[in-house]
Amino acid sequence: MYRFLRHALAGTSLLALAATAAAQDQAGSGEATVLDNIVVDAGSGGVIQADGYVGKSSATGAKTDTPFIETPQSVSSVTEEQLKDRNPQTLLDTIAYTPGARVGAYGFDPRFDSFTVRGFDVTYTGVFRDNLRQPGAGSSLFKTEPYGLEGVSILRGPSSALYGASGAGGLYNLISKRPTEDSLREVGVQYGSHGRKQAQFDFSGAFSPESPFTYRMTGLLRDSGTEQVGVPDDRAYIAPAFTWQPDEDTRFTLLSEYSRTRTGGTAAYYNDPVTGVSDIFAGNPAFNDSLQTQGRIGYEFEHRLNDVFVFRQNARASRLDIDADWAFAYQRNAADPRYLDSSAGSFSESLVAYSIDNQLEAEFDTGPAAHTVLAGIDVTRLNWNSKNGYGVAPPLDTLNPSAGRPMASIPFQTETDQDQLLTGLYLQDQIRVDDLTLTLGGRRDWVGTDTQNTTLATGAASTVTQDDSAFTWRAGITYQTPFGIAPYASYSTAFSPNAGINQETGSAFKPTESRQQEVGVKYLLPDSNTMLSAALFNIDQENGLYYEVVNLPTGPANIQVQRGKLRSRGLELEASTSLDNGLSLTAAYTYTKAEIVEGPAGTVGNDVSSIPRHMASLWAHYDMPEDGPLSGLGLGAGVRFIGKSYGSDYNTTENDARALFDASLDFDMAAIDKAYEGLTLQVNATNLFDRREPVCSAGFCYKDQGRSVIGSLKYTW
């Protein structure tokens, strides 16, 4: 399978040589090559062009900087201004107000950012970082620190025609903070619920007034408990970035990150077979450690060769290591029901990934048609290693459930080592004729996966080799009417190989495939910083991965399983605005019917568990007038409505509908005295009324995360 890597690396030089030859041919023909007024754009890094809460364009929808209104798929953004006002603490907090995103299906759990979009899990296949795939396998999922983001750009629906491995729900492109030419100096402290203490900083600027070098250094240190005993939320984070732009035609940006996070091996509550989810922590506070370290370093390079061709290369190397112990109380003891029988385990995982994406973009005209053609080769190589040990934990005393039961780490019994290589060739043409935009794209992917399972006690090993390939494509059309409304229609497909193994069978997962039909309309209101959009979609997916509680030889475990066929149909409505009067607002409504078309007996025709038919959200922030008596004060409020859903695929139990309220208050101290200029006080509350109800997914029940209040003091200069 390594032949694909050789071909892709060779393709890097072929693209560059072809572009250079084209530039030389044009210069040799006697035509003047004009470069003076060409500015390198946002390129493929995915930086959002936004005004307040309103995202206008990014490279996420087409890998070229394209206005959202011209993109023939549903797109959204979480802008820098939204991040500042809401102060999210996790990726789930960050995207909670975007259409179609189902967060909280697994209740309180700081270990993973697990969520679904349009009824499909995107945890492993739908999270991208700076337009490069951020892979995951098993418990190896990269953690996201929202303070290190300058935005999130979202493309919903199958999108493999450009991005290769991605899921049916779409992709969430996490955009790292980048160096700024203007000087930025920020330090801050936070204090909040459960003894949360955090210090943070963000510095950026040029090395000197005329220097082509700019930098950014972002970091934080957090010491925090959570609502669950034995589950901390501690983190150390640092993210250096560096940009070199010697002229208007060339840019090189280095992006890096290192973090160390300590939390719990489990955060689950005990599920009683008679009374349901209880208030008893199912774990063991004395045997519930999870330490994850992760790092990444990569770059974005862009060079304009002439007024037609631009060459780009984005690359990243990343590594994740996690070591954890866990215990899990799963049933009442037959001899004394006061005690709960508990299983336990220890595991150690590592994930190493390398990604590189080579692109050649050409802009030219053929008669009345203007073309933006993008050709590329990208490669992702990953290695996932997992060691696991299982055993029995001391029973849990229901009369003293918070007491720790000391025990030693469990020796590893099994080891899985998986290598996967993904190579993709893609081509896209955006054709513009007057107000009509036609987008056509196709991609061929090759995937090779080698999985070795070893029983450590005997050294017995078995190896499974799997090779897959697929062609995916997208066709879309958008028309911008004279009065500003832009209807669109598209068809898109996706192909996603799956890292990890089926713990029931020990074999690698099959690739997940999906296809979508979507029609919609977008409207950027004239003379108003307001974007409205609506979309109807129909998605079919085969061989998707989901978590279910399965009885293994070691006891019940919440593991990944692969399902037959799902169909999701729905409607999405979204509005965002930032007005001159100080009001900024984002609102969304989603109707989703996610149905099991093929699956286990008793589930066919049912709704997918924990996917509500109805979801809605509204967040608004208002800055008081500068000349009024409340000058300097900002108020924010939001509500997230999650409708009824089923607790399992058998549709025998229901999750009640609920509405969760959030709020914020901020005050610019300069309104009191100019001596305090740059000093800001802010308070954010999520789940303001502390609503903590059961929520069940795939037959196992959790509880909503309770109220969290965080006060922040920030100084900028």
TrEMBL record:
GO terms for cellular component: cell outer membrane. Residues 70-170 form the TonB-dependent receptor plug domain. CDD domains: ligand_gated_channel (cd01347). GO terms for biological process: siderophore transport. The keyword Iron applies. It is found in: Cell outer membrane. It comes from the Bacteria. Residues 1-18 form the signal peptide. Residues 243-688 form the TonB-dependent receptor-like beta-barrel domain. Keywords: Cell outer membrane, Ion transport, Iron, Iron transport, Membrane, Receptor, Signal, TonB box, Transmembrane, Transmembrane beta strand, Transport. It is a multi-pass membrane protein. One of its GO terms (molecular function) is siderophore uptake transmembrane transporter activity. Belongs to the TonB-dependent receptor family. This is Iron complex outermembrane receptor protein. The lineage of its organism: Bacteria, Pseudomonadati, Pseudomonadota, Alphaproteobacteria, Hyphomicrobiales.
